[in-house]
Design goal:
With 442 residues, the chain is of the alpha/beta class. Helix content is 34%, strand content 20%. The chain has two domains: 201 residues, 3-Layer(aba) Sandwich (Rossmann fold), CATH 3.40.50.2300; 167 residues, Response regulator (Rossmann fold), CATH 3.40.50.2300. It is globular, with a radius of gyration of 21 Å. The two termini are 41 Å apart. Keywords: Signal.
Length: 442
């Protein structure tokens, strides 16, 4: 794939007519090209697109491209009666660093883009929220909206909630509660090792694991509890050795990307025979890294799995595999598809509420107000936005690793020969949690 753009050059990588980045509200947004074609609605993808976590960013890009292609195939978004515009994604490489992400945000603004999508790092998301809040107060004529598909530190929709930020993933406490619903019944596990990445999200995961274990399984002993530098460890054997020596029967971790793959591979190499209760153990190389040792032992939580029951879900996944047949590209998240559908729904609703005779796209505030009431369904999965804190509500699933072809496992992951069988589905009402957000609306 073509290298990612630098922030200084602001080179844009586009993929055909697919993509997603919202154009500046007031500047030529409804302008027609010389041939009478509508200008695209653009969304800036500010993400880690290089370095050890770059594979996760590229996977997000594919998801948003595919979602945009689906919207564009039906004619794009109707921004006004009889006027439809395509979606387009523009890439900006944050390199996984908050300061680089802020530079990318400024680049997107300089390029006339005021809709931002990001998710792989809660630390980056927190920096973006703060910067966008300041920008929107300073420049109300070109306000920015932030679509978050994966940054799941609970604080982002609690104490630091923002009118301009919308989260489409379940936050860490919701995910932990879903995992705990399975661990609670796993009476074979009497001791656990907690390990995570040393930044806001990883810290939140371990904090919530301790709290929920005390409530749900007070009989379980925590025999290890540590954080490690994020995206810097190349050899996890010392960590795996400590895990095995601790006598832990299970590991609980929120690790993602290369930090998870290397951890589970090291655990396999030292002969650790316990279970892994993970947030992201079902993708990005983790199943192949652990191999047969993970069968029945690697548990993951997600909004959806490729082996989720139902014909609609199966058709959805088969369509993704047809679009991206390379096994290395097998990373699809239904929530990212639902996010794009919610955006399209909100832009169309805001267009209907625009003043009569308006020629520009609806203002950011109108789209945000419409997005607060987003309610979309795809592949049998329904997502609705909770207006009080801008936290999406949707079902969650917990699944366990097994061989492809085993009952409930028609599909594998990334050509590994291993897939995930759904153990439990929590409906949205069961996954929902209270919040402490005090939303300040403009």
């Amino acid at each position: 794939m073509t290298p990612s753009p630098s922030n200084t050059g602001r080179r844009r990588w586009l993929l055909g007519s697919a993509a997603l980045l919202l154009s500046a509200w007031g500047r030529g947004v409804a302008a027609q090209g010389a041939a009478g074609r509508s200008a695209p609605i653009r969304v800036a993808l500010i993400e880690t697109l290089s370095g050890p976590m770059g594979n996760a960013g590229e996977a997000v890009f594919r998801n948003l491209v595919w979602a945009s292609e689906r919207v564009n195939a039906r004619g794009g978004i109707e921004v006004a009666p009889g006027v439809r515009r395509p979606l387009q994604i523009v890439r900006y490489d944050s390199k996984g660093q908050p300061q680089e992400a802020l530079s990318a945000l400024q680049s997107a603004l300089d390029d006339g883009i005021t809709l931002v999508a990001q998710g792989n790092s809660s630390a980056v998301a927190a920096a973006l929220i703060e910067a966008i809040n300041r920008h929107n107060e300073r420049e109300p004529q070109r306000q920015v909206l932030f679509l978050n598909y994966s940054a799941v530190d609970p604080i982002l929709t609690n104490e630091r909630c923002s009118f301009w930020h919308f989260r489409f993933d379940a936050h860490a406490d919701m995910r932990m509660a879903a995992l705990m619903s399975v661990l609670k019944a796993d009476t074979d596990v009497r001791s656990v090792y907690l390990i995570g990445q040393d930044y806001s999200f990883g810290q939140a995961v371990l904090r919530e694991a301790r709290r929920q274990l005390a409530q749900q399984r007070p009989d379980i002993r925590i025999v290890g509890d540590e954080l490690h530098p994020m995206a810097r460890i190349k050899d996890f054997l010392p960590y795996a050795t400590k895990i095995k020596a601790s006598g832990a029967q299970a590991v609980i971790t929120g690790n993602w990307g290369n930090d998870l793959t290397l951890l589970v591979r090291a655990a396999r190499d030292v002969g650790f025979e316990g279970k892994f209760y993970t947030f992201y153990g079902n993708a990005l190389g983790a199943p192949a890294a652990i191999g047969d040792a993970g069968i029945g032992k690697v548990v993951a939580v997600a909004d959806w799995f490729p082996n989720a029951p139902g014909a609609e879900s199966r058709r959805f996944y088969e369509a993704f595999r047809q679009r991206f047949p390379n096994p290395a590209d097998d990373y699809v998240h239904l929530r990212m598809q639902l996010m794009v559908e919610a955006l399209a729904q909100a832009v169309e609703a805001a267009g209907r509420s625009a003043p009569a005779g308006a020629t520009a796209l609806p203002a950011a505030q109108r789209i945000a107000l419409a997005l607060e009431h987003a309610d979309v369904t795809l592949a049998g999965q329904r997502l609705r936005m909770r207006a009080d804190d801008h936290q999406a509500q949707q079902p969650l699933m917990v699944a366990v690793m097994d061989r492809q072809g085993a009952p409930g496992v028609p599909f594998d992951v990334e050509g590994s020969g291993y897939g995930f069988r759904v153990l439990q589905r929590l409906e949205a009402a069961a996954a929902e949690q209270p919040h402490t957000c005090r939303m300040v609306r403009p």
